[in-house]
Structures are given as C-alpha cells and as structure tokens.
Specification:
It is a single chain. The chain has helices at residues 2-6, 9-26, 88-91, 143-147; strands spanning 37-40, 43-49, 55-61, 66-72, 79-86, 101-107, 118-128, 133-141, 152-155, 157-163. With 171 residues, it is an alpha+beta fold.
C-alpha cells in the first residue's frame, strides 16, 4: 500500500497539506505590520501604525515643509483624525535652497502618561539631506475619541532632532 502512495502525487499533496496545518497550529501567531513609503519630485507619503488596529498616512510637502497625517475613522468612508506640523524650523531648512527630504516610519514605545492623548506606537522620521538633520514626530492619539468617531485635530508632536551627518556644502 505504501508503494502505491509513493507514486501518487495527490497523496504527497495531502501529506504536505496535513503537515502544514499541524505546523501552523504549533507556531506562535504574531501580527504582521507592513508600512509603505513612496515619493515623487517634491512630495513623499508613508504609512505607520497609531495603535494595534489603525494606521496613519503621512504626507510631506517638500516645497512648504508641511508634514500632515490622517487616520481613517471606525466607520469606513471617512478620515476622522488629522494632524499637521511644519518641519522646516526643526531641521534648519531654508525653503528657498531646494531642500531634499527623506521620510520613513518606525516603531517607538514612547513613555505614556495619564493624559487623554497618548503618543502613537510609531513615529515618522523626516531627514533633510543638505542640512544633515533628522527629526522624529509622533501622533497624539486618543483611542477612546477614535472609537467614539469623534474628530481629532492636533499638531504632530516633535520627539527628537539630531544631526546624522555634517551639513552638505551648497553649490
């Protein structure tokens, strides 16, 4: 009987499926969080989680230095949380000198106090290449306001600013 099963490709498929189901039941389940970043000319976009269920979409306008973020509401079809901040002063950027920005998001377990607004579980990093400065910004998040579908409009919170390299020489 075993010899017959060895020659049957469907038997091997069944054995593989059963083995996969057994292994998946034994392995721990961890949520996967994917983020995305893209840019075009003078504009960048990125995503990052604000809590375990929702993520923000960040937009950076290179011409104005305006960093904005939005979060979808619990009821699909509308954004209910809006955040903004101008990064030019923090990064020491002269907007007339054609700034060159980079933007990504990352996880950050920032200290949470007893305040109504708590920092999001991720931050957005904005770097400006010619000044060599990078800054991190967090979203002031209220899970209870979001759950109640209350609109949230707050400025992004600067977390840290540092230099990642010496300023580039201007031509």
């Amino acid at each position: 009987m075993f010899r017959h099963a060895v020659k049957n490709p469907f038997a091997w498929l069944a054995i593989g499926l059963i083995g996969g189901v057994v292994l998946s039941g034994l392995l721990p389940r961890a949520p996967i969080h994917a983020v995305a970043t893209d840019r075009i000319d003078t504009f960048a976009i990125a995503t990052g989680p604000v809590d375990s269920e929702f993520e923000a979409v960040y937009f950076l306008d290179f011409l104005t230095g305006d960093l904005r973020a939005v979060v979808l509401g619990k009821d699909a079809g509308a954004f209910t949380a809006y955040f903004n901040y101008n990064v030019l002063q923090d990064l020491g950027v002269d907007p007339t000198k054609n700034p060159r920005f980079l933007m990504v998001t990352g996880m950050a377990a920032l200290r949470r106090g007893g305040a109504r607004m708590q920092p999001s579980i991720s931050v957005v990093y904005v770097a400006e290449v010619t000044t060599g400065n990078v800054a991190a910004y967090a979203i002031p998040w209220s899970r209870s306001m979001h759950a109640a579908n209350q609109p949230i409009m707050q400025p992004l919170v600067p977390v840290a600013v540092t230099r990642f390299r010496p300023a580039a020489a201007r031509e």
